Task: structure prediction
Amino acid sequence: MSIPSREEALKILKQSGTPPHIIDHCLLVTKIALRYAEAFKAKGYGVDINLIEAGALLHDVGRSQSHGIEHGAVGGIIVRKMGIAESVARIVERHVGAGLTEEEAKKNHLPEGSYIPETLEEKIVTYSDKLVEGDREVGIEREMEKLSLELGNSHSALRRLQDLHEEIMEKIGYEL
Result:
């Protein structure tokens, strides 16, 4: 299993039928994720830049088949069938929201398992995706406000996003 290059990942998006506006979104998420990856590297964290780039580019490949909450799980299936590295598949399936617990996955009829980002690479791509709305960069506050309106202030997804934000800021020491 391999980690696709930028060119290979873009080819996969196009061949899978990912809409052009989603590809534009993936490109912006990638740009932001690579900024964060460089900040982590500068702080001495051993993050895999190639993995982050491939994961960020392919994170929404599942939108070629679905635009619902299941698009992450669908994308994970797509990239696994293509023989792409498991580490990329995990980024793709774990980027939705700030991750989904096993219980949330079950409620949403997803394949069994936890969809919570665990590795720094998974967290960087997940976080970067929350900083992009469509094809424009937004602040994390916008995503937190949106989640709060959709799910309520006490929902665990909002807490997970807040925790993810705090973890990223604590590790790199500033917002980019």
User: Anything to note?
Assistant: The domain at 6-172 is CATH 1.10.3210.10 (Hypothetical protein af1432). The CA atoms of residues 44 and 92 lie 25 Å apart.
